[in-house]
Amino acid sequence: MKSIVIYFSHTGENFSVGNVMVGNTAKVAACIAAATGSETWEIREAEPYPTAYDDCIARAKKELEANERPAFVGTAPDLTDVETIYLGYPNWWGDAPMIVYSFLDSVNLAGKTILPFCTHEGSGLGTTARKLAKAYPQASVGLNGLAVYGHVAQNNDRATSDAVNKWLEPETSI
Known about the structure:
By secondary structure, the chain is an alpha/beta fold. The chain contains 7 helices and 8 strands. It has a single domain, classed as Flavodoxin domain (Rossmann fold, 3-Layer(aba) Sandwich), CATH 3.40.50.
């Protein structure tokens, strides 16, 4: 089964961890890629989000309220032979950032399995898995996604790896 880890991660000021050069979600994505042997593809925004946390989430809230689809940089990877997409993002305002939806809107998800994972500071996965399942019915979205506290992802590689490995066990992944 061919899989890929596709993720969006924010660098700069992050809630509870300060300024980071590698985003919280990127750290979890790297751990999933290492555990599964998957390639990775990072969703990068054409118009970078502000590095200051409050400014970043203010923009994210405006995008969410307007149901915007901000542009991403580059060409989406070829998913023709991919069966499983590990999809990662920070949970902003109870949802995946709208740029994640921009990416998903741009690819053929028919017959794919999407396993969501997120970083957060208290909201967990929220209802994002259900929102993804509703928005992309042509794919099978795992409702038991992985939620890792951002401060854990940033500061505790072992706890992050343990959470990823537990999530990847067959009975907990879908």
